[in-house]
Amino acid sequence: MVEVLESSFVVPSEPTATETLRLSNIDQVAPPVHVGFVYFYQGNQAKDFFSVETLKASLSRTLVLLYPLAGRCVVGQDGRKEINCNAEGCLFVAARSDLTSDEIKFEPSSELQKLFLPSADFPESLSLLVMIQVTYLKCGGVVLGIATNYVLIDGCSAFYFIQTWAAVARGDVANLIPPSFDRNLLRGRTPPRVTFNHPEYTTDSIPAAAPKCCLTAKFTLSRKQIQSLKSRHSGGSIRISSFSTIAALVWKCYCISKGLGPSTQTRLIFVADVRRRLSPPLPKTYIGNVVVRTSAVSEVSTITSKPVHVVAEIVQSAVDGITDDFVRSFIDYLEVMQGKILHSTLELAESDLRISSISGLPIYEANFGWGAPQKTSGAVAPGKNNVNLLDELGNNNAGLLMYITLDATIMPLFEKAFYEELILVDTENKGSFSLESAGTCSS
């Protein structure tokens, strides 16, 4: 269905610094995977519509500014990962497909990833920091797939790169804000001072559960529904964010659908971008991982019996606990535990749920000179017992999309609990729901 026309490495258009970029302690524990995003652009009559030459030339100029992204992730003599800024370039693939946009489901799935992101099954692929594929469809449209290596590039960093590349392609460079690669900003203290517990990062591996069939479902929440849920907390002692409100709703429905024992301890694990929580705050354009996992913890009986706005207070308390001191303690903890943190800690206990959000990030600001994307999607569905949140494509009043992957047997129970909670605040419109991938078996 997809035929590769050319594959090459795009290098910086000018000589760049040849150096080794030290990776922070947080970078060291980032999973070594490429995270992909896919954009669809409707064809138009422009003579150079998504010209390979224009894309490659603008990418080459962008890599002068973001030169470490043209390097390679390697393991240094001390056993720590680092970036060799050798200007070997980003992988760029041009392809064509006999598919039309109407035949493509722009939702996270292994099929979307396979079709529109470069294959990463060659030995050196994990060392690459950026991989790009532009695919020309039968209908005249274009799909642009961009995969970035999580070892150096978190969500904020990825969308900054995409925004910058798009601006260079448009010739709109006057207002570009330079990136920051200053690793001293996240350096550990001497001596290390671990003043908080960080149980989300442990040396213990959680035994894998027996494989079960899972479903990934998409739910849509309107801004009105989110505001209605938040308004139930009016007059409370603490300010509740939209994230905490939605996370509380999902956590409660998850605990109900799982049928866990009332005294069982459950965790809602979430990932927070801490750029603005540090003192002083990090530059918005800092390139690297500035995300920290933490969790809200409670007994199942508390989560299932309390109203959503009360559960939201539990979540918000955990969110508010992410302070500069907390983050510095975490960095020092990683220093003390250097090399002992397992990537397998991404496994979840059956009573746990993990939620991440890219709501508020400029995921749709990807105009390369031929207009904004008409559709966009993450390339991979969330793993089991994982939830992803992102803004719906549209204006400022657009809603929120939620993707959740659960055991197939409990998905109907989750859906029932979810809409029963929504009906309490919005009797006219319970929202929308669709199953996006069925029969996917995972542990």
Q: Characteristics of this structure?
A:
alpha+beta; Chloramphenicol Acetyltransferase; globular; 443 residues; 6-stranded mixed sheet; disordered C terminus; 7-stranded mixed sheet; single chain
Short description:
This protein has 443 residues and is α+β, with helices and mostly antiparallel strands. It has helices at residues 25-28, 52-65, 110-116, 155-170, 223-231, 242-258, 300-305, 308-320, 324-336, 411-425; strands at 2-10, 19-22, 34-41, 72-75, 81-85, 90-97, 130-136, 142-149, 212-221, 265-273, 291-299, 353-357, 375-378, 386-391, 400-407, 432-442.
Protein model, in words:
- The protein is α+β, with helices and mostly antiparallel strands.
- It has a domain at 2-186: Chloramphenicol Acetyltransferase.
- Helix content is 26%, strand content 26%.
- It has 10 helices and 16 strands.
- The chain has a 7-stranded mixed β-sheet. The protein has a 6-stranded mixed β-sheet with strand order 1-6-7-8-3-13, sandwiched between helices.
- Strand 4 and strand 5 (81-85) form a beta hairpin.
- Helix 2 (52-65) packs across helix 4 (155-170).
- The radius of gyration is 22 Å and the shape is globular.
- The two termini are 30 Å apart.
- The relative contact order is 0.18.
- GO terms for molecular function: acyltransferase activity, transferring groups other than amino-acyl groups.
- Belongs to the plant acyltransferase family.
- Pfam families: Transferase.
- Keywords: Acyltransferase, Transferase.
- This is HXXXD-type acyl-transferase family protein.
